[in-house]
Write a structure and sequence with these properties.
Shape: elongated
Strand content: under 5%
Helix content: over 70%
Number of domains: 2
Number of helices: 5
Amino acid sequence: MEDYTASYHALTILLTLLFLSNFHTSLASTSSTTTEKYKTYIKTACNSTTYPKECNNALLPFASKIKANPQKLCNTGLSISIKAAKNCSSTISKLSKNKGLTHSEVAIIKDCIENIKDSIDELKQSLNEMGQLEDLM
């Protein structure tokens, strides 16, 4: 009788482990499939842009955050653009400090920096408007 009970417990444990391993595998494939759906959503959205390759490179790392949500897609895109514009402004500011620039070159660089700052302000305003739109929904 003890052999039967031990065999029964061993079989129960084995079946439970088998079930759990199959369950884990199905969860992993579902997660992978879901992530692929999110990436496909982003790729489709990026295909309608002027620079689809750059759009994909910027947004695909955020697929699990964006999911298939158009507002999150826009907010993420705007946030990435703001950060890139700030980096660009910083780089150009460093260029303006180079010695040997003519007065014209300095003026051109300052004008460029002002244009980038205006762009950053407009991007921030767009991000704020997206937040207000989100609040309405």
